[in-house]
Amino acid sequence: MIDLKLDHVSKKYNIPASSNSPKRWYKRGFARRSSEMWALRDISFEVKEGGALGIVGHNGAGKTTLLKLLSSITAPTRGQITIRGRLAALVEVSSGFHPELTGRENIFLHGAMLGMRRAEITRKMSSIVEFSGVGQYIEVPVKRYSSGMYVRLGFSIAAHLDPDILLLDEVLAVGDVAFQARCLDRIGELRKAGRTIVFVSHDLAAVYHLCDRAILLARGQILSDGTPRAVIDQYQRMAFAGQGTSLDQLDPQKLAECTSISFSSPESSDSVRTGYPMIARLGYRAAQSIPGAVFRISLYWPSGYLCAQFTNEASGPRLSLEPGTGTIQFQCPVLPVVPGLYRIDLSIESNGCEIDLRQRCASLCVDSGRPAQGDFYIENQWTVVRS
Amino acid sequence: MTSENAAAPVVAPPGDAGAENLSWTPAGDQSKATARPIKVIGPPAFSLRTVFTGIRTLIQYSDLLYTLSVFRLHVRYKQSFLGWAWAVVQPLALMGIYTFIFSHVTTVATGGAPYPIFVFSALLPWIFFSSSITNSIQGLVTYPNLLTKMYFPREIIPLSYLAAGLADFLIASLILAGLMVHYGVALTWNVLYAIPIFLLIAGFASAIALFFSAVHVRFRDVGLAMPFVMQIWVFAAPVVYSVQSVPVRLRRIYLLDPVAGLIENFRRAVIYGTAPDPAALAISAAMAIVSLALAYAYFKSSEGAMADLV
Question: Is A2-239 in CATH node 3.40.50.300?
Answer without folding.
Answer: yes
